[in-house]
Amino acid sequence: MAQEDVADLKKFLKPFPADVQETVLWLRDFVWNIYPKSNELIYDNYNALAFGWSPTDRVGHVFCNIAVGRTSRNIQFGFYWGTQIADPEKKLIGNGNQYRYFLVKNRNEFPKQYMKKLLKEAFVNSMLKVKDQKQIMEGKTMVKSISAVKRIKKNNKS
Q: Lower Cβ count inside 10 Å, N or C end of the chain?
């Protein structure tokens, strides 16, 4: 099962402080425990480490993602198609045409029950975007991109 396939992600998380790593891995388990048959797509980009869950191997089908800024260290628990899901409590941030996210300061303040409701709607929305059912895969972790150059804080020795 892909939830245990964490070696690459832990390697990509090494430049981040321990508290950020712990929170990110806790959020990862939160999603995996609800959607164990989804696929995890990892993008180790120059400005952020981002990974999300999709019923396929395509970013356009991602229903939830976690992103950590390389310089800000902010943790976003986001919805790739966030504008297409209900957010009655207005907890999601973002003004663009698509992406919405919740800024995670610490796991004690993370609204688990509310996010479970949003995840459910986001997953259904994602499945509606899959036009070819043959694209559906189950329980894989895939590194989709690795940037050679990373933007990091000057005092970080990674």
A: C
Q: What is the C-alpha R_g of the chain?
A: 15
Which uninterrupted H or E stretch holds 64? Answer: strand 64-69
- Structure-token pair, residue 48: 């952020």
- Two tokens, residue 83: 């504008």
pTM of the model: 0.86
Residue in 53, 48, 126 with CA at minimum distance from that of residue 84: 126
Q: Supply 59's token pair.
A: 């970013």
Dump pLDDT digits (tens) for 50-88. 999 999 888 888 999 999 998 899 999 999 999 999 999
Residue 77 backbone phi and psi in degrees, to 5: -105, 105
Bridging pattern class, strands 75-79 and 64-69: antiparallel
